[in-house]
Amino acid sequence: MTDNVQHVGLPDERPPANTVGPIAWLRNNLFNSWYNAILTVLVLALLGSAIPPFLDWLLVKAHGFDSTSPACRQDTSGACWGFIGEKLRFILFGQFPWNEQWRPLATIAIFIALLLASCDRRFWKPWFGLVWAAGLVTVGCLMWGGVLGLTPVENTLWGGLPLTIILSVIGLAVAFPAAILLALGRRSNMPAVKVLCVTYIELIRGVPLISLLFMASVMLPLFLPNGVSIDKLLRAQIAFIMFAAAYMAEAIRGGLQAIPKGQYEAADGLGLSYWQKMIKIILPQALAIAIPPLVNTFISFFKDTSLVIIIGLYDLLGTAKAALSDPLWRGFYREAYLFIGVIYWIFCFSMSKYSQKLERDLNRSHRR
Amino acid sequence: MKSGILAAAAAAVVVTAGAGAHAGLLDTVKSRGFVQCGVNAGLPGFGNPDSAGNWTGLDVDFCRAVAVAIFNDPTKIKFTPLSAQQRFPAIQSGEVDVLSRNTTVTLTRDTSVGLNFAPVTYYDGQGFMVNKKLGVKSAKELNGATVCVQSGTTTELNLADYFRSNNMEYKPVVIESEAEVNAAYFAGRCDVRTADVSDLAATRGSVASGAEDHVILPEVISKEPLAPAVRHGDDQWFDIVKWSINVTIQAEEFGITSKNVDEFVNSKNPDILRFLGTTPGMGKALGVDEKYAYNIIKKVGNYGEIFDRNVGPATPLKLERGLNALWTKGGLQYTAPFR
Fold it and tell me: How would you label A182-216 residue by residue, b for 16+ Cβ within 10 Å and e otherwise?
């Protein structure tokens, strides 16, 4: 009776070729309708005509890092990486004295180490603030010198990547707490505080950063008594902090407004004071919600530091431009801008990636 | 952190407040230990940092001459790179002692901007560059040409004036960024590129290949005398800057260079003896060391050496002396006598 019952299952048949496999993927994603097919072909043709010449220029026909300017001018079909080879230290460190350039290099390393460590939540402890303080003091000693036998270096000679990092990291670190206070102030019930914060935010947000920098560098010295001058870097740094604080305050206010009223009422119901309520209940949630706009601000400020060129400070973009003004090496724009573009991209892309991770970790309850 | 920065700001204000005393600028500079010089943030051949970050250029060297006159040391100087907008506030507010940043001498700058101009260090002027293939020999033959010009500059206005006054037509291609104007010209979008002659020469020198395919026409349609400047109100300082520059011109006139200056110290010519400080008097009158002229020539060089080193035919800029030759050789470089 049971003899003609098969106990072993038939071997699985392959699914039809039009649902799995590379061909199916292509059909479903690239050629699933006539207009997508046309677009795919067009895009492929475009890439096909653009990428090989670019790679040719970038690598195949390029002159190496030790090539000279006349050699590059002889044959212009490839990139001249000799420009980067010759100007690398100037682009990275600006006019910092040549023999002391290990100091800005160490500064970059310290900042990157601190930033990477700060990304790890195990270090989010009060003592890590001390590590940051120690790091900043070390950086200050390294850059200014004048202690431990280091030759003093004026901050007008700072430039390149360390300047970009110092301006953005210190700028954002100082602006962040200020922005929280401004955001809280803007939502405060106290009229004077509220008016003050609203005025500040709207005033600063209403002018371009470049005009604030101009004010700081061009107008301020004229108002000061003759001979009195405030350090140029400090002026730029303060302008950055003021600007970043106003923008971040609005991002944080967005986060504050997204918190349901019940959270405030629950905190009040527990008898928490205003600051306890904010620090323990509201801000942790609000800041987590505000991560995307905050990171947006961070990234744009990292890049906005390049505006300091207009007040005569050489950030990374400024040193690259100044390197191009060497009569021997004029005209190698593509190499210079590509090189610093890659540096900027690495920093900004890391920030963006980390913020995505942070969002996943912190926003579990709000995930939509 | 914030209070730290505020404290630092307060300290910065207090520390520099002492410098505003009413002593002359020379004393201030001497006690400070270096000259503050405002330069271009990056103009090839005139003011640009080299690969090691040291400032080089024609404008830079004249600042070094001032530092040598006072300290006998071309490194006792602090360069402040300035943008076109920043340069006048910087000199007015005392952020720099000398502004040596390819600045054209004009009446308003000399008066209402509050500057005193030292002798002209470079006579520039607006000119035209064309491709050799066109066979144009003079700007007068440019009727109907397409002209590449940078927007928002006096260059654009001078161009319009020149063509109108010569009853010629032209088609402007106006672009904001200098790099792109040049790219447009070399890509053949226009027949003519107009800018200051030194700029045209530098541009021509920067093209990857075929620099010899382009000619700069002989007509110069505007006057752009570039000179270092100091602010009103300190005549002694103005004198020092003025005569430090004159030294380089006089030295070339005498045939004294950084290499042979020692041979002239005991010359038979009383003019040279007075000039080099072997016969004292000139240094004392200025309030600097008697050997200041000797030091400038020894450490910076004469005008010709400075010119050749930074922008001359052996450099990528390949500029000819032209108007900047000595007056004895048909140029305009001339100095009042040292006596």
Answer: bbbbbebeeeebeeebeebbeebeeeebeebbbeb
Residue from A72, A73, A337 whose CB has the most chain B CBs within 10 Å, to mutate? A73
Query: In A, which residues are within 8 Å of B204 by CB distance?
Result: none
Mean pLDDT of all residues in B177-189: 82
Six token digits for residue B139 = 């700007």
Residues in chain B: 339
Question: Does the pLDDT of residue A2 top 70, yes or no?
Answer: no
Question: How far does the CA of residue B317 sit from the closest CA of chain A (Å)?
Answer: 7
Option in A87, A228, A311 nearest B86 (CB):
A311
User: What DSSP string describes A243-296?
Assistant: HHHHHHHHHHHHHHHHS-HHHHHHHHHTT--HHHIIIIIIHHHHHHHTHHHHHH
Distance (Å, whole) CA A28 – CA A201: 50
Residue pair B279/B273 in contact (Cβ under 8 Å)? The answer is yes
**ipTM metric:** 0.76
Alpha carbon dihedral A184, A187, A189, A190, in 10-degree steps, equals: 60
Predicted local confidence at residue B21, as pLDDT: 41
- The domain made up of B23-123+226-327 is a member of CATH 3.40.190.10: yes
pLDDT tier for residue A366 given thresholds of 50, 70 and 90: low
Q: Confidence band (pLDDT; 50, 70, 90) for A363?
A: low
Which residue of B43, B50, B88 to mutate against A (max A Cβ within 10 Å)? Answer: B50
Quick: pLDDT tens for A226-284: 666 677 888 888 888 999 999 999 999 999 999 899 999 999 999 999 999 999 889 98
Q: Are A297 and A176 in contact (CB under 8 A)?
A: no
Which residues are CB-contacts of B107 (< 8 A; sequence separation ≥ 6)?
none
Q: Give residue B16's pLDDT.
A: 42
**Cβ-defined contact of A87 to B81 (cutoff 8 Å):** no
Global pTM value: 0.81
Q: Which residue has the tokens 């005398």?
A: B225
Q: Residues A315-345, buried b or exposed e (16+ Cβ, 10 A)?
A: bbbbbbbbbbbbbbbbbbeebbeebbeebbe
**Which of the pair, A366 or B172, is modelled with greater confidence?**
B172
In this prediction, residues B222-250 reach a mean pLDDT of 94
The residue extents of the domains of chain B are 23-123+226-327, 126-222
Q: Specify the CATH number of the domain A82-94+156-366.
A: 1.10.3720.10
Q: Which residues of B touch A214 (CB under 8 A)?
A: 85
Average pLDDT, rounded, for chain A: 86
- Report the Cα B256 to chain-centroid distance in Å: 22
Show residues of chain A in contact with B44, CB under 8 Å.
325-327, 330
**What pLDDT is attached to residue A197?**
93
Any idea how long chain A is?
368
Instruction: Report pLDDT digits (tens) over B15-38.
Output: 443 344 446 899 999 999 999 999
Q: What is the DSSP string of B264-303?
A: HTT-S-HHHHHHHTSS-SHHHHHTS-TTHHHHHHHHT--H
Q: How is domain B126-222 classified at the CATH fold level?
A: D-Maltodextrin-Binding Protein; domain 2 (3.40.190)
* Inter-chain residue contact B44 with A231, CB threshold 8 Å: no
Q: Give the closest of B13, B83, B209 to A228, CB-based.
A: B13
Out of A157, A234, A322, name the one closest to residue B48 (CB): A322
Mean pLDDT (chain B, rounded):
87
Judged against a pLDDT cut of 50, whether residue A332 lies above it is answered with yes
Chain B residues close to A170, C-beta within 8 Å: 1
A87 with B51: Cβ contact below 8 A? yes
Nearest residue of B to residue A175, measured between CA atoms: B2
Q: Which of B12, B78, B93 sits opposite A231 (nearest CB)?
A: B12
Contact yes or no for A227 and B13 at CB 8 A = no
